[in-house]
Amino acid sequence: MSAPTVRSAGAREWGGLAVLSLPTVLLGLDVTVLYLALPSLAEELRPSSTETLWIMDAYGFLIAGFLITMGTLGDRIGRRKLLMIGAAAFGAVSVVAAYSDSTALLIAARAALGIAGATLMPSTLALITNMFAAPRQRSLAIGVWATCFALGMALGPVVGGVMLDHFWWGSAFLLAVPVALVLLVTAPVLIPEYRAPHSGRFDLLGVVLSLCAILPLIYAVKRVAKEGPEAPTLLAAVAGLLFAVLFVRRQGRLANPLLDLRLFTDRTFSAALGVLLVGLVGVGGTMLLITQQLQLVEGLTPVESGLWMGPPALMMLVAAIGAPVVARRVPPGIVVAATLALSTLGYVLLTQVDATGGLALIVSGFGLVYLGLGAVAALGTDLVVGAAPPEKAGSASAMSETVQELGLALGVAVLGSLATAVYRAEVGDEIPAGTPAEAAEAAGDSLAGASSWADRMPADWLDRAEEAATSGLNTAMLAAAIGTLLLAVLSAVVLRHIGTIDGTAPESGAESGAEAEPEPGVGSGLAGPTPPPRDAERLGPS
To answer: Are 172 and 30 in contact (CB under 8 A)?
Structure first.
């Protein structure tokens, strides 16, 4: 029996991809641009340390908490409709954030931006799966999509720095306004609507349980990196796990759940999610530590740091677009494993960075790390959404985004805590006698603290603190290298059953003696090969 004919995407779909890439770049940019605005923002609004923490984290907490909800909501009310609602809200709230005259208003705006942002990522990814039914084209489109987020992160320090040189701190938020306007004008023309048929009632209690599970867990992994395993952090983690159990039990009983647990019975779906989660752990911690190394040890400004991070970002661009092309002839598990092996080499290079000057090692090492990230993000995401039936694409996309958010947070917590522990161990007993208590406490806690009190410390002591911080970086990168090498081996094993994007039979079909059908993309799928959207599901441009 021949596989069903799959319609190829045309000029309209590729134009729609360009439109869908805009909010993706915006969300990536929003991750990094606030770091530049924080000093001038703090000077004007004078937030406390706790308020500063919430200004930075409210966005990430809410976007992670609402991803599953918004992914499923898009399946039900229409993915394009939700995308446009989210874009309009993101643009409007960005204006509120830009002109905030109080810390409380800015925190509220950042939280609202997180909720609006949660509508954008799963909607854009799910719409791509509708627009690009042909496996080759879908994989390439997802590669472009994955690259745009990294491009936004790389552009954040540069674009933000230029704007802050000419305007006030709030101008960084106004970048969202033209993006939202372009999307609202062009989306009805270039992007088809899609909603899942027979989706049933929306599970509001499931939304509450999912938030009660995800928000405490994200809070716990973020706080443990800064405060250690204190009682409130552990209680938050336990509460999150308990609500997660309740959420899973409820979803298993519902006919129309918020998250369809049957997705996890597909081994491609589950294996790809695991690779995405673990792969992002190393990258999340490395981004944090490398950014600190460039600014606090190398002495670069945020804009200069952003420029030096440009070449590594290009490596991710190459991998995100190139990996799907290679996977047309080479099984995706092998492609992912090979690029992760190169990432391991990158981490090894970063273990050799020293405090006297290591820009070349940082750029080359981090470039190889990003090479693995590009392949994992593009192929891993394609595996996840390709393994789900069309009506569950929004939910699958949301799960992909959720595990990546969790992986980044875990990376900051694990590798950040390890680097901090090494720093504290090396400088704890070496703070000069007679140092003021406040200065000694800050200097013993982190290099940032030591730098802020440099004028109260002996001239050569800051050099010792920089060496200790670099030693912490080296140790964390060694741990990341070991973990990434293990992940490379694991990827080759758990993804070995997946055929190439061009339809090479997976091992499971060969072993059973059956003639394997070409796979939808690179995932096996819960409902067989992915057909083009049906007329009842794909609602057209209006």
So the answer is: no
What is the three-class DSSP state of 249? Answer: helix
Closest CA to 144 of 32, 31, 28, 20: 20
Furthest-apart CA pair in the chain: how many Å? 83
Do the beta carbons of residue 218 and residue 409 sit within 8 Å? yes
Eight-class DSSP state of 356: T
Which of these, 70, 124, 74, 138, lies nearest to 382 by C-alpha position? 138
Do 446 and 468 form a contact (C-beta atoms < 8 A)? no
Dihedral sign of CA atoms 182, 188, 192, 195 in order: positive
pTM of the complete model: 0.75
Question: Would you say 126 and 71 are in contact if contact means Cβ atoms under 8 Å apart?
Answer: yes
**Residue 3 DSSP code:** P
Mean pLDDT is lowest, of 16-25, 266-275, 502-511, for: 502-511
- Return the SS3 of 503: coil
Instruction: Name the DSSP class of 83.
Output: H
Separation of alpha carbons 495 and 322, rounded Å:
19
* Tokens 């938030």, residue located: 211
Separation in Å, CA 79 to CA 118, 125, 196, 394, 527: 13, 10, 9, 8, 21
Task: Work out the pLDDT band at 79, boundaries 50, 70, 90.
Answer: confident
Q: Are 209 and 243 in contact (CB under 8 A)?
A: yes
Kindly report, residue by residue over 195-207, the tens digit of the pLDDT: 776 666 777 888 8
Contacts of 433 (CB under 8 A, 6+ apart): none
DSSP state of 266: S
- Does position 344 have pLDDT exceeding 90, yes or no? yes
Separation CA 314–CA 238 (nearest Å): 40
Using CA atoms, how far apart are residues 500 and 257, in angstroms rounded to an integer? 32
Per the structure block, which two tokens stand in for 136? Answer: 């080759």
The string of pLDDT tens digits covering residues 13-64 is 788 888 888 888 877 777 666 766 666 676 677 776 567 667 777 787 788 7
Distance CA 75, CA 474 (A): 45
Two structure tokens written together for 77: 């009310």
Q: Using an 8 Å Cβ cutoff, are 387 and 272 in contact?
A: yes
The encoded tokens of residue 293 equal 């190394």
Among residues 173, 194, 200, which one has the least CA distance to residue 94? 173
pLDDT of residue 379: 82
Residues 294-342 pLDDT 10s: 877 888 876 777 778 778 877 887 888 788 888 888 888 888 889 899 9
CB 129 within 8 Å of CB 390:
yes
Mean pLDDT of the chain: 77
Q: Which helix (H) or strand (E) holds 298?
A: none
**Shortest CA distance to 404 belongs to which of 433, 432, 373, 372?**
373
Read off the pLDDT band of 454 (50, 70, 90).
low
Q: Is the CB of residue 64 less than 8 Å from the CB of residue 400?
A: no
What is the crossing angle of helices 231-253 and 204-227, to 10°? 150
Q: CA-CA-CA-CA torsion for 488, 155, 399, 368, nearest 10 degrees?
A: 0
CA distance 246 to 301: 47
